[in-house]
Amino acid sequence: MKTSPKTYSVEFLSKPLTDVLLVATVVFTASLFGILSRPVGFLAAIWPANAILLAMMVRNPRLSTLTNWLAAFVAFIAADLITGNNFDISLRLTIANIVGAVVGYQLFMRLAPEDRELSRPISIVCLLAISVLAAASAAAVGAGAALMLFERSLIVGFTSWFTTELVNMLIILPPILTWQGIPDWLRGRRHYTFFEALPVISLVVLTLCSQIIGGPGAFAYPIPALIWCALSYSLFTTATLTLCFSVIQIIALVHGFQYVTLRDDPLAANISLRIAIALIALGPLAVASVNAAREELLERLNHAATFDSLTGALSRGTFLERAEAMLINANGSVAVLMLDVDHFKSINDRYGHFVGDQVLAQVGNAAMKATRPGDLFGRLGGEEFAAILPGVSEEEALAVAERIRLAIESVRVRHPDGAIVSTSASLGLSLKSPGNTESFLNLLSRADDALYLAKERGRNCIEIKLAA
């Protein structure tokens, strides 16, 4: 029997190929940058390739395939060979780089997703621990290559590799792991005032002062500005500013722009200062993380106080406060609407409170969708809701109320035993004409009277009570 030749989807093949090219290109480019930063006689001053590779895999675990790791391996070797290293040394250096990235990836993937995004204060401690272990793993493998390449002792090779890798991970990983898309200020949606930009300005000024004044402690001058930035900006922005600060300090350290040697062994002093820079970078990250957690908690508390957790409508207090303010500022006529779910107690008694809560949630959602964009809708308590409709005539207010009534009438909730639970609502309206000084509480009271009239007249209907 003749069989047709196998065909493969272009889409199926293109995605893995795109991933391979992406990983290889990023690693190759980052490696070339690191090699070009290498001082004569030792390892690279800044080696971003390992941290970038690790962050790519952690941010998108789909990339963590054997093929993509091999692509990174080849890219490391290719960058080294192009810049003059022999294959044996390139192979040893590459194995060390891959080992560090793999160890870091395995450890990061054991964390909760929020810790991988550094969104909790404890995440910064996890970042430090993982960076230490990954850097130590890479250094343990790469120390021998450093001995061959630069004729240094194993201890010096390990220490220098470890400190270089540690500082690179601590300054490069955070901006990538906390990236949430293009910031609003880059999109032109957010413009900072001069006072909002002061933390960045102070960081620039103090960094310049550290370069001009010099001395062994000059790298610490911008620390207050970094803390100010951490208290003022997002975690991503703080991480990016910390990266810029650290890169400037490392370049100054390597090229001797500002520092004096504290020991007879300049290499030992450089290693010590590298560790100091790495640990300084943790400070603003920790502050920004704590500040972000605090702001998130305040936002949750504010949301809980503002909105009803079951229905999503405004809470009673917030609705009454905003409705009062809306009435005071309204120029035209204003309508107040109250609604009550019909026979809700019998729904709870027959089907249980779980189904009753579902009914309330869907009623609230359906009613909110039926209101207009400028209207306020809130839950007063139990099965009772209210709305304030600014700028409406009597006919328009009745039309909105009818739309709400029909939306609630269409609500259907399925009971676990298969029964379909439906409901309806009675609605009451009151109207305030322009120039009327009636208070909001009086309007609400009239709407409540109209609501009870609707119940007396058979429910699932709308009644309106005009001012006397």
UniProtKB/TrEMBL annotation:
<feature type="transmembrane region" description="Helical">
    <location>
        <begin position="154"/>
        <end position="173"/>
    </location>
</feature>
<dbReference type="InterPro" id="IPR000160">
    <property type="entry name" value="GGDEF_dom"/>
</dbReference>
<dbReference type="Pfam" id="PF00990">
    <property type="entry name" value="GGDEF"/>
</dbReference>
<keyword id="KW-0812">Transmembrane</keyword>
<feature type="transmembrane region" description="Helical">
    <location>
        <begin position="89"/>
        <end position="112"/>
    </location>
</feature>
<dbReference type="InterPro" id="IPR029787">
    <property type="entry name" value="Nucleotide_cyclase"/>
</dbReference>
<feature type="transmembrane region" description="Helical">
    <location>
        <begin position="194"/>
        <end position="213"/>
    </location>
</feature>
<dbReference type="InterPro" id="IPR050469">
    <property type="entry name" value="Diguanylate_Cyclase"/>
</dbReference>
<keyword id="KW-1133">Transmembrane helix</keyword>
<feature type="transmembrane region" description="Helical">
    <location>
        <begin position="65"/>
        <end position="83"/>
    </location>
</feature>
<dbReference type="InterPro" id="IPR043128">
    <property type="entry name" value="Rev_trsase/Diguanyl_cyclase"/>
</dbReference>
<protein>
    <recommendedName>
        <fullName>diguanylate cyclase</fullName>
        <ecNumber>2.7.7.65</ecNumber>
    </recommendedName>
</protein>
<feature type="transmembrane region" description="Helical">
    <location>
        <begin position="124"/>
        <end position="148"/>
    </location>
</feature>
<feature type="domain" description="GGDEF">
    <location>
        <begin position="332"/>
        <end position="467"/>
    </location>
</feature>
<feature type="transmembrane region" description="Helical">
    <location>
        <begin position="12"/>
        <end position="34"/>
    </location>
</feature>
<feature type="transmembrane region" description="Helical">
    <location>
        <begin position="243"/>
        <end position="261"/>
    </location>
</feature>
<feature type="transmembrane region" description="Helical">
    <location>
        <begin position="273"/>
        <end position="293"/>
    </location>
</feature>
<keyword id="KW-0472">Membrane</keyword>
